[in-house]
Specification:
The chain is mostly helical. The protein has three helices and no strands.
Length: 71
């Protein structure tokens, strides 16, 4: 279940990038995307906590996710 939820969250991020793409070069667009990502980060942390992963495993998952979204 956790893996499926993480995949769903990943798709939500991709969809939001597609939606906001035209405005990401503006301060407003960047702010909207930052707020969206903060919410998704909270969702990801909740999935990781409910999956019973230890803190090292959680850190590795988050490092992997952040590397994928760095521009």
């Amino acid at each position: 279940e956790g893996c499926q939820r993480l995949q769903s969250l990943q798709q939500e991020v991709i969809d939001q990038v597609t939606k906001l793409w035209p405005s990401l070069d503006t301060a407003t667009g960047q702010q909207q995307f930052a707020e969206f990502l903060q919410g998704k980060t909270d969702d990801i942390l909740n999935v990781l906590k409910s999956a019973g992963l230890d803190s090292d495993s959680q850190a590795r998952v988050l490092d992997g996710l952040s590397a994928r979204y760095q521009a």
